[in-house]
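Hi R.,

Here are the chain sequences for the assembly we discussed:
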Amino acid sequence: MTRSIPLRLRRVAVAVQLLCYPIVFIVGRWLELSVSLSSLLGLVAVIGMIVYLYRGTGFWQLGNAPDNQLDERQLQVRNRVYRLAYIGVATLVLALLLVAIFGFPLPQGFDDVQPFYWTIATIVLTLPSAILAWTEPDNI
Amino acid sequence: MFVLDIKQMKGEKIYNRIALLREERGLSRKDLADQVGVNFQTIGYLERGEYNPSLDLAMDLSAVFGLPIDMVFSRQPLRPLSEELATLKNKLT
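And here is the predicted structure of the full complex:
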């Protein structure tokens, strides 16, 4: 780990990272940009936040490295984080299933599905590292 | 506040003299971490009592310091080494 971000700032950054795609997309649409351009700007924002939050801080590596590259404490932390991420993803899937079962309208058509898909994809792909960044104490 | 509590995962707190012994020997956290094969941040967590090591790691650390494991780790808060040595000396004489 070459740089560290204080816990409070990290938590703000995690919230921004998880929500920036839908927010940028909605703002883009509000400014009457096309769906594709709004989506592209949202993805650029997500990538920017990922680079800021995870590059050089070790959280991405801790969340994704093979077991043999981690020590015993890191493995314990990651196991716990994966469990929490699994609960988060399972809850998300169950919520979507309930929405579908009870007949609420799910997005249909490319323009509607695209932001929905990318929002969920960015959350699911970064969730373990996001939980790590949210929960790891500052290392003094 | 929601923070992963490794101490809870590992049970009762274990006190240690790692920081004292490391500084006494002029080792950085990185030096010590390299000698026992862990990340240097793990040494910080150990020194602050935020993580209880496995028996394997505890034995490796004790071996680096050349001390018995109970001189480095304890279930009770550790007394200064000088007091500990004086008690030992009294027992022997």
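The mean pLDDT of chain B is 86. Chain B touches chain A at residues 2-4, 6, 9, 37-39, 41-42, 44-45, 48, 50-51, 53-54, 56-57 (CB under 8 Å).

Let me know if anything looks off.

Best,
T.
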